[in-house]
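User: For a reading group we're discussing how well predicted structures match intuition. Take MoaE protein. Before you show the prediction, I'll give you the sequence so everyone sees exactly what went in.
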Amino acid sequence: MNNETTAVTSPTEMNNAQRHNVPSIEQWLKEAKQQTDADQCGMYLFHNGVVRGTAKAQVRHGENSPRVTGMQFSFDQKKVDAAVQRVKKMPGIFHVRAWLNSGTLQVGDDLMLLLVGGDIRPHVVDALQALLDELKSICVKEQEHYE
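Assistant: Thanks. Here is the predicted 3D structure of MoaE protein, as structure tokens, for the group to look at:
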């Protein structure tokens, strides 16, 4: 398994100027492919979560909601690190990397980037889904702002 550390910025280190310094997925892929176990990876899967203009209640439950203008977003660093470590232990997974934004974000801003690399598609898809589910349900706090 890869010993790469989680690429996550803590909310206390983040300010508005840093908020838009989103990592390069091209650089992440380049670095992943240079790892010693990269020859065991047959797939890399990337997730880019962004602030959308439609409310979660509208998208998920069809509720009539005002337009979203932004979001307050934060996360628990220890929980994120634990989630990444759990996913790294899943079958066939050799590379996991996560970056999460924080602060007051606008529609279109990046919330998180995730990269998972592994041997075969089912392992990689399952690992990315598990990581995303845990991050969204346990590790982050989101508060939508409306018009």
